[in-house]
Amino acid sequence: MNGNKKIGILFGQERSFPMAFIERINSKNVQGIVAEPVRIDKVMQGVSSGYAVIVDRISHDVPFYRAYLKNAALCDAAVINNPFWWSADEKFFNNCLATLTGVPVPKTVILPSRELPPDTSDQSFSNLVFPLDWESIFSYTGFPAYMKPFAGGGWKHVYKLHSPEEFYQKHSETGQLVMLLQEEIVFEEYYRCYCIGGKYVRIMGYEPRNPHHLRYTHDFNPSAERLRQMEEIVIRINRYLGYDFNTVELAVRDGIPYAIDFCNPAPDAERTSVGEDNFEWVVETAANYAIERALVHRDGIDNLTWGEYIRRSSQHVPLV
What we know:
The chain is α/β, with parallel strands linked by helices. It has helices at about 15-25, 65-75, 85-90, 90-100, 135-140, 165-170, 225-240, 270-275, 275-295, 310-315, and strands at about 5-10, 35, 55, 80, 110, 145-150, 160, 180-185, 190-195, 200-205, 245-255, 255-260. Helix 1 (about 15-25) packs across helix 9 (about 275-295).
């Protein structure tokens, strides 16, 4: 890739963040760097996308885009976030990894889908004990508990459950979704934290019990020590996972920040949602980081970010 280093952003219905991101990069007038919306008129195997950096905001919803990004990455684009890792990642794995890296997380179990997946029968589940050991599961998580998809996003199909009876009722409505059952963390404070580049952190007070448009309205006043503690947790999680752009949600109970949800590789960044100050931070930081990646981009090599988990596994090094 010669000449200018192009930075592209791939997005769906959102407008405020993608347009501001493009405008911010171009306004900096960095020699050889230009930003634009990604344009796709054909995808041929092993042919470069023409972009040094691509910021992905939509491929989790569009399989065609995920395939395009993998091809672009193989042809040396730095894709934010790594499309191979994003394809493999899910929330239960993240929780398991957190327990091995010293990050407090709620007690969580994964459950088989209520209905059989397509093209399977009862015979496909010869290894699964029926019924499951519900008594041990409920004793482990306790009630109230939350049930949510193991690979879902946002607040879709999330249930707060108060008893085994309520669990059975709601679980019967989940169809072919694989669900998590998770201990409720009754928190005093809650934070949503952007992490960009595995090093830039924005800690935002967040109140998920408020209506959606008021969730960034709060009266939390964390100490400097608490802020340092949360920043360290956020950076550790993202470095192990290898995400360049992610949010981590932390619920503070009895002075301990628990990582509740930390697999958000296309996090909400709309101006009307996150507020003007947070929007300004994420636009400026994402723009600077994309430029940083474009400037160090090298032709003909893998320019992706691979997390500490993958690197240590390939070298047979313990996680901690």
